[in-house]
Design brief:
This protein is mostly helical. It has one domain. The protein is 58% helix and 3% strand. It contains 9 helices and 2 strands; from the N terminus they run E-E-H-H-H-H-H-H-H-H-H. The chain has a two-stranded antiparallel sheet with strand order 1-2. The protein is globular. The chain starts with a strand and ends in a 16-residue tail after the last helix.
């Protein structure tokens, strides 16, 4: 495909970076819209979204590095520490679940009393935007050739031909493979739609928040069937226990925990809405 939009001298402007920027602004707009429907401050939601974005970028890189250092890479042994500072690693997008984990940590940390944002209601507002951002970001993956699939003899199999994709991500060239990035795109877009529709029939605050983690986990476990990039590590010596599946299982467990925690709790009432005693 087209990993680079254009070059300035020897420096390439990546398509993935552009799509990530578009993903952020689209997700921010949706988060503000969903927050407004719940009476949340647009300014507070924006500040939170920026903090979560920064954490997501850092978390994605960190998980990619941790996996590379701790698990065998593509059957060629562990990644060397010096590889962290190579151009390919610096330009790589990282492991998306690492970004979600880091973003979730920052989210829960920011939900302190002085933030003025209720945890469960804010989570409900943010997660459809997270799913939308993931979907748009996967288009960037497809253009860059990263997160590629296994061999595919079906009519929709795609063949990458750009040598930059192979150099940056190890993408196999001139071989029909599953467009797994588009599978991720479709799954995340479907999750976004489900969350928005489910909000209209929400029975308790935190329901949409928990539903996101369950759906994201299930979707990732399924799509991992067609992932062909072997440089993401296999844990406990089991080829099927990839980093994506391991974190997906954790997401499902987190979603169930949030559901159990939230379902019997009363809705948040702002101090401004608390009736004064006569």
């Amino acid at each position: 495909m087209h990993p680079y939009l254009f070059h300035i001298g020897s420096f390439g402007i990546g398509t993935y970076g552009l799509m990530m920027a578009l993903a952020f602004f689209a997700a921010l707009a949706l988060a503000k819209r969903q927050g407004t429907l719940d009476g949340l401050s647009g300014e507070a939601v924006t500040d939170l979204a920026i903090a979560v974005l920064i954490a997501g970028v850092i978390g994605s890189k960190l998980l990619m590095i941790i996996v590379g250092l701790l698990t065998p890479v593509g059957g060629d042994g562990h990644m060397a520490f010096s590889d962290i500072f190579t151009i390919g690693m610096l330009r790589a997008g990282g492991a998306v679940h690492g970004g979600i984990i880091a973003a979730a940590i920052v989210f829960f940390w920011k939900m302190r009393p002085k933030s003025g944002l209720p945890l469960r209601k804010t989570g409900d507002a943010l997660v459809p935007a997270v799913a939308l951002g993931q979907a748009i970001g996967r288009i960037g993956c497809f253009m860059a050739g990263c997160c590629y699939g296994t061999s595919c003899d079906l009519p929709w199999g795609v063949a990458f031909t750009n040598p930059d994709a192979h150099e940056l991500s190890g993408t196999p060239l001139f071989e029909h493979i599953h467009p797994v990035q588009l599978y991720h795109f479709g799954a995340n877009l479907l999750i976004c739609g489900i969350l928005i529709l489910a909000r209209r029939k929400r029975k308790f605050e935190g329901q949409i928040f928990s539903l996101y983690f369950v759906l994201e986990g299930i979707g990732r476990v399924i799509v991992e069937l067609w992932r062909g990039d072997l440089d993401r590590g296999a844990w406990l010596g089991q080829a099927w226990l990839t980093t994506g599946r391991l974190t997906a299982i954790g997401f499902i467990a987190l979603g169930v925990a949030i559901w159990a925690f939230s379902r019997n709790r009363p809705p948040f009432i702002s101090p401004k809405e608390t009736p004064k005693e006569a």
